[in-house]
Amino acid sequence: MKNSLIPAILLAAMAISCKGDNSKTAAPKDPVKVKVIRVEKQAAQSNKTYVGRVESATDINISSPFSAKLVSIKVKPGQKVKKGDILAELYSEHIETMFTSAQATVNQAQDAYDRLLKVKDNGSVSELKMVEVQTQLSKAQAALRSATKSKEDCIIKAPMNGTVGEIKAKIGEDLSAMQQIFRLIDLERLEISIDVPEMELSLYGKGSEALVCVPALGEDTLYAKLIEKGVSSSVLGHSYKCKLSLNSCPEDLRPGMIAKVSFCKEEQEAVVIPSSVVRRDGQGTYLWLVDDDLTVRKGRIVTGDFSGSGVIVESGLQVGDRVVCEGMSKISTGMRVSITE
After folding, report:
1. Which CATH architecture has domain 93-153?
2. What share of the chain is helix, strand, coil (3-state, %, to 5)?
3. Which of 22, 140, 275, 314 could bridge across to 109 with cysteines, CB 3.0–4.6 Å?
């Protein structure tokens, strides 16, 4: 009796199990809800963006004209100066000795010339002697002018209007000839320097307008024009140095700040999509498309420049295509979806 009940119980259990599995398989999965955008052409203004640095149009290093001691500094970093303002004073014993000696030589030559001139008329002095003394006086005067110029050069003056950017020496320091003392910067005329790849250099000409954003100053936009295109390329980057002149310079703008430069092209009809829908994998760039049967697939695309409203698609999309813009993390190729508004 017991032996006959065991097979019956096993068969009943298997029947119940099979019934449960069939019910799970038969239950259809709900389509994943996604939002889409319809592809359409629109007026787009593409732009290229480069990262550059702010530079001064005029940046001068002021050096010691000869070996001397730095005895005083009249300015501080960041101080504005005008052309001719005294920046520092030098002292050179050699220059002082040369100046004193030149003065004495001129006095001596002038005295000899004056005495000979008094007796010239009575014929007691030959014409040759007179020329010799006059020549010695001229040489002495030339040496004095040179010594006076060197003595004046001990006073270091600003060669232009500008701002003291850096002081590179200390009071009491013995300077060598051509050793740098100051860096003088013109903050009234600042430029932006960028590196443009060789394949893009022909896109721009002198006068091309650009928008400039300096993150250190906030989100304000500055306007600039291309004034210089480099003629020699960087060996490593195959790029050319280009410079832009700013229409106006904010007070807080300083050389060395990072700037983002965007060149804008003329408006044209193009397919533009939000950059947030663009994906990348090992095969390239793609996005998710919804077909007429409400299944999704990867659509391979080729993107171009950025536009104000997104990225321009050069190929891979047709007007009317449905591109998934929300719910992308929940879908895979071939999956059925439902479109929500």
Report:
1. Orthogonal Bundle (1.10)
2. 25, 40, 30
3. 140
- State which CATH number among 2.40.30.170, 3.40.50.620, 3.40.50.980, 3.30.1490.20 fits the domain covering 49-57+186-264: 2.40.30.170
Residue 158 token pair: 């600003």
| Residue 181 neighbours by CB under 8 Å, 6+ apart | 62, 63, 64, 70, 87, 88, 156, 167, 168, 169, 175
Q: Amino acid letter at 76?
A: K
Angle at alpha carbon of residue 277, lines to 275 and 283, rounded to 5° = 100
| Cα angle for residues 29, 30, 36 (degrees, 5° grid) | 135
Q: What are phi and psi of 178, to 5 degrees?
A: 70, 15
pLDDT tens for each residue of 118-160: 777 666 777 888 888 899 999 999 999 999 999 999 999 999 9
* pTM summary value: 0.59
Phi, psi of 105 (to 5 degrees): -65, -40
Q: Could you tell me if 259 and 214 are in contact, meaning their C-beta atoms sit under 8 angstroms apart?
A: yes
Cα separation, 299 vs 290, whole angstroms: 9
Q: Which pLDDT tens digit goes with each residue over 204-219?
A: 889 988 999 999 998 7
For tokens 């060395």, the residue is 256
Q: Tell me the per-residue pLDDT of 300-316, one tens digit each, with 9 for 90 and over.
A: 999 877 776 788 888 88
| DSSP one-letter code for 15 | H
Q: How far apart are CA 53 and CA 202, in angstroms?
A: 21
In the chain, what percentage of residues exceed pLDDT 70? 89
